[in-house]
């Protein structure tokens, strides 16, 4: 009984800490007006196998945004905006600097690709640098959560489970009160 209570309290404590961490991350992302992130790091889903085997398709990666996007070096893995709705994470294979304008561009290549990317990346299009943190296959869940079906599922299912838990708890409380009322009262006689 005591072990069960310790496990229950530990689980509750861990859930509260997790809730506070996620809520804090959400608030800081909203206040900064930026992309969703986790304490200064942005989380992105990987949708292709161009960086395999290091970064698997369907993984979630963490990137660190940089204000100075001209300081990356050969060998760094960067995430950049190719178009309005498309982000790519590839390795820098060459840094090209225009001496006249001072503009920095990067030639990039996916580790699993045979050839470098066709167009060099302007430093202004770089979002951040890959930190080395990868959570394999979690990107599939994140993509599902971002869909309409995922939103509905993630709102309705926990709501139904919460209602069922409340009904179960109420049922047990009523049953224990009924049992207490049915038990004969003992009288003391001298």
What does this structure look like?
The protein is α+β, with helices and mostly antiparallel strands and 190 residues long. Helix content is 39%, strand content 26%. It has an 8-stranded antiparallel β-sheet. Strand 1 (37-38) and strand 2 form a beta hairpin. Helix 2 crosses helix 3. The longest helix has 35 residues, at 148-182. The two termini are 37 Å apart. The mean pLDDT is 80.
SSE map:
Blueprint: H1 2-32, E1 37-38, E2 41-45, E3 60-65, E4 77-83, E5 86-97, E6 104-109, E7 121-122, E8 126-135, H2 138-146, H3 148-182
Antiparallel strand pairs: 1-2, 2-3, 3-8, 4-5, 4-8, 5-6, 6-7
Helix pairs in contact: 2-3
Dominant shape: elongated
How large a portion of the residues is in β-strands, by DSSP E?
25-35%
**What is the tally of beta strands?**
8
Q: Mean of the pLDDT scores?
A: 80
Radius of gyration of CA atoms, rounded to a whole number? 27 Å
Q: What sequence of helices (H) and strands (E) makes up the elements?
A: HEEEEEEEEHH
Terminal-residue CA separation: 37 Å
Unreliably modeled segments? none
Largest sheet: 8 strands, antiparallel
Helix content: 25-40%
Number of helices: 3
Q: Which strand order spans the largest sheet, edge to edge or round the barrel?
A: 1-2-3-8-4-5-6-7
The structure class reads alpha+beta
